[in-house]
Amino acid sequence: MTKSPVSHADYWPLFHRVAFRFAAIFLFLYILPFPFDKVPGFHVLAQGYSKAWHAIAAWVGNHVLNLPQPITHFNDGGDKMYDYVFLLIVTVLALFTAALWSFLDRRRLSYPVVYYWVQVLVRYYLGWVFVFYGMIKVFHLQMPSPTLFELVEPFGNKTPMALAWSYVGFSPVFSAFVGMAEVIAGALLFFRRTTTLGALIGGVVMLNVVVMNLTFHVPVKLYSSVLFFMTIFLVLPDVGRLARILVLNKSTKATQQRQFLETRWLRNTAIAIKTLFIITVVTGNVVSCFQRT
User: Fold this and answer.
1) What single DSSP character describes residue 158?
2) How far is CA 72 from the centre of its chain?
């Protein structure tokens, strides 16, 4: 049986510890209610969590930020005022909690177990997002072929977002190519050994998406930026090794895959849950895309 990594006293520099505490809290608050919103029977809890955030954001916007208009739109998509306020609240909470955590737990030198589980949460969330958005591009659903009205519309009348959608939608092959990059990145993130590769591919894809959203005024700037931040979070532990190989042309040691589930029944249970999750994500998205075509 592999010994628990808790006994291996790794040392993290102070900045790394503080940064990790902030990132862990921020990502946990941002990603919830996933994965509970994907589990049958837990949707009520997930809806309650989301409604609680809606109420908190509306209160903060009205009583703390003194916004000229109350926050009433929550689930319409895009960069709504709610999305900005929610991101602000999560960031402030993460900063405050990380500071308190750093004070109360200042003697701890590393967080290998906590990092492992935060990484698992981020990996599976990003994997699900990449597979979802990748599939709808592969089936040419997110950016469909331009309609006749759009084809005869004067070029100057198009909004920047409509121009981007027409550009991608014009070629189903290009749309599928971009979508497959996301699907591959998502699939790689479901496995620990291929996490870095999946995060690198996903990071390149998301950087392109962020720049496109910013320059073509696509109202998903905040969400895509946070997803890009998540890919950086997953790649950071291997930045030094990648720099040695790709920049310095030097050899580097392989990463040791530590075992965090000590008993066989825990490992078997985790494998079963993982397999069920991957099958559900892939088949669910494929079936949904077929139904929409």
Assistant:
1) S
2) 25
Cα 23 to Cα 221: distance, rounded to the nearest angstrom: 20
pLDDT, tens digit only, all 293 positions of the chain: 334 343 344 788 999 999 999 999 999 999 998 888 887 777 788 888 889 999 999 999 999 999 999 888 887 667 899 999 999 999 999 999 999 999 999 888 889 999 999 999 999 999 999 999 999 999 999 999 988 888 888 888 889 999 999 989 999 999 999 999 999 999 999 999 999 999 999 999 999 999 999 999 999 999 999 999 999 999 999 998 899 888 988 888 877 777 777 788 888 888 898 888 888 888 888 888 888 87
φ, ψ at 191 (rounded to 5°)? -130, 135
Question: Which of 135, 149, 146, 136 lies closest to 168, judged by CA?
Answer: 146
Alpha carbons 122 and 118: distance in angstroms, whole number: 6
Report the predicted TM-score, pTM, of the whole model to 2 decimal places. Answer: 0.90
**CA torsion through residues 43, 45, 50, 51, sign:** positive
Cβ atoms 160, 216 nearer than 8 A:
yes
Cα–Cα dist 119/134, whole Å:
21
Instruction: Give the pair of three-digit tokens for residue 108.
Output: 């701890």
CB-CB contact of 50 with 64 (8 Å): no
Number of Cα atoms under 13 Å in the Cβ half of residue 140:
13
Q: How many CB atoms lie within 10 A of CB 292?
A: 9
| CA separation for the pair 93, 29 (Å, rounded) | 9
